[in-house]
Amino acid sequence: MSEQSLSGSENNARTTRRERVVLVGLTSCDQSILDRLVQAGQMPHFARLRAEGAWGRLIPAEPLVGRALWTSVATGRSPAVHGIMAGKVPRRDGGGVQPVGQTAWQHPAFWQTLQAAGRQTITVNWPATEPATAWAGTHVDSRFARATGPDFDTWAVPRGSVGPDTLRAALRDLRVHPTDVEGAMLAPFVPKLNEIDQYRSLSLVNLAVALAEVSTVHAVTTALLAEQDWDVAAVHYHWLEAIQRLFLHDGIDPRFENTVDMAYMFTDAMLGRLMELAGEDTTIWVVSPNGVRPGMDGKAMGWRASGFIAARGRWIEAGRTLDPLRLVDIAPSLLARFGLVAETDGKRIPALAPGMSRRTVMTPRPAAPAPDQHVAALRALGYDDTPDPAMQAALTRAEAERLLARGEALLGAGQIAAAEAALLEARKYVSPDSPSGLRRLALCRLLRGDAPGCREIGETLRRLTPRDGWGSLILAAGHALDGNAPAAWPHMAAAKESGGSSPELMSRLGGVALMLKEDQTARTYFETALRMDPDLLDARKGLDMALELSRKYEASPPA
Questions:
Q1: Could you check whether the bond before residue 164 is cis, i.e. omega within 30 degrees of 0?
Q2: How is residue 225 annotated by DSSP?
Q3: β partners of residue 268
Q4: Residue 136: Cβ within 10 Å count
Q5: Nearest to 233 by CA among 138, 130, 123
């Protein structure tokens, strides 16, 4: 790419000190895998980031939906406020569903506040930002890197995926199509590549697709960092999630057993390049909102509610361990580094942002989308076909996912009644016997103190899914609400026997034991959960509560 291809390249030669931040978002970068590879000396750039900066855990956020989590990072708002909860929404013309995008945002992102304050921003591949042209600043949305067409020459740049539109031509040739990924590029990830039929292995095809997409995202990011004028640049990589869904499960072909580790090392190399381009004076933040749990019996991995933030730069103490933070704390802390304040649900993290004076910037809300006049005209002429069964099923799924996610978000915000209403509404779109919906509904009943309602759901779940332990757990919780320990214990034992491999379930059993004031039993459950998942913050908090209860018992005089 020539110096003339992107405007603003001469501005990066400034010698005066300026505040600049690069925010790197990594979906599903698991801290346990990361720690293992850092300790083995295989991820030197992450090791340097940790040694030269601060590192802390991120408190789990609900719902565990990628677009919801990353919008919370961008806005400093909970999903119940920012409005991005499910991955897909109905199209405005009623003709099916589409990925949720910019028109659904109900609160400004940090880059909007920065732009309003006169700062220059870049985002690449940030979830739920389509179309890129809807935002002020320089933006490339997720459609840009997603290959279409059989080869590069037939792969069109989606309209609106690059903003401003004048950059489309300059960025077009930076893309990598999966058919351009050769065996030599795959060999580091699959050392025994020559033993695999490259024309028949779907695993290799999927690896090539993921590698092409992340290479495109990274190439665009590095080009914009090098040649644009910017104050804050934010890039999102979902590459680790894609690779782990493919290769992190029991029964994986042994020839792919090191693929996940190599993907982490590739991510480290990308981070190193970003740090190099940004320069020593630039602050680097790396955020991952969730970890992963390997799949069992050939099933794809699942998310676990454990993330981290790492930061290096001016005013950040080297080697600092941060207290657990929330996703909604990231945006206000980033803005504080530029002396700005915006309305958020989070708070400034002093260790990451200085205590300088700050000013509030009013960010105009995005304009409402124009009405679909052509659709209204067609309907007036009678062209209003009933959706076919497949389209109707997609619409129903999208609405159910939205309501279930809204219920989770409202639960996280402590709005129990509203959460229960959303979950009950969702039952109109999914089977009333949906286990995931029933678990959320049971939590509402538990928090409301509705013991009979809790037990009713527990009985239903035990009938529907007798082998996972959650029905027995909820039954135990319902009896614990009444203080009926003799009735709760058998259900707790049944839950442990059925679901003893789940750290989340073991942690919840610890919570039931705390309800019964059984400190030693609670400690056992929480310690078991932490042996399974050392990063499970709920279990760590529960263990602290159990230890505090033990101290109270020891300090109280005998009866």
A1: yes
A2: H
A3: none
A4: 15
A5: 123
pLDDT tens column, 497-545 = 988 788 889 999 999 999 999 999 999 999 999 998 888 888 999 999 9
pLDDT for 14 equals 36
How many contiguous H segments (helices) and E segments (strands) does the chain have?
Answer: 21, 15
Say how far apart CA 256 and CA 234 lie, in whole Å: 31
Whether pLDDT at 12 is above 50: no
Output the six-digit token pair for 59. Answer: 């408190």
Residue 98 pairs with which residues in a beta bridge? 89
- 553 — phi, psi (to 5°)? -65, -40
Q: Which residues of 20-36 are buried (b: 16+ CB within 10 A; e: fewer)?
A: bbbbbbbbbbbbebbbe
Residue 308, beta-bridge partner list:
57, 288
pLDDT tens digits, one per residue of 421-467: 988 888 888 776 778 788 888 989 999 999 999 999 999 999 988 88
Note the pLDDT tens digit of each residue in 175-231.
Answer: 999 999 998 999 999 999 888 887 777 899 999 999 999 999 999 999 999 999 999
Q: Which two tokens stand for residue 321?
A: 């361990």
307 φ, ψ (degrees, to nearest 5): -130, -175
CA distances from 285 to 19, 38, 313 (A): 13, 18, 9
- Of 151-165, 367-381, 399-413, 530-544, which range is least confident? 367-381
Structure tokens at 206: 């999927």
Question: In this structure, what are the phi and psi dihedrals at residue 38, rounded to the nearest 5 degrees?
Answer: -65, -45
Which run of H or E residues covers position 269? helix 259-278
Written as one string, the DSSP assignment of 368-398 is: PPPP-HHHHHHHHTT--PPPPHHHHHHHHHH
Contact indicator for 23, 285 with CB cutoff of 8 Å: yes
Report in angstroms the alpha-carbon separations of 107 from 62, 74, 322, 344: 18, 10, 27, 9
Amino acid at 118: G
- Give φ, ψ of 230 to 5 degrees: -150, 155
Hey, which of 296-310, 346-360, 527-541 has the most confident mean pLDDT?
Answer: 527-541
E strands of 109-229, at which residues? 121-124, 138-140, 162-163
Torsion of CA 53, 59, 60, 61, to 10 degrees: -100
| Contact between residue 321 and residue 55 where contact means Cβ atoms under 8 Å apart | yes
What domains does the chain contain, in order, with CATH numbers?
18-84+104-360 (3.40.720.10), 394-555 (1.25.40.10)
Structure tokens at 94: 């009623």
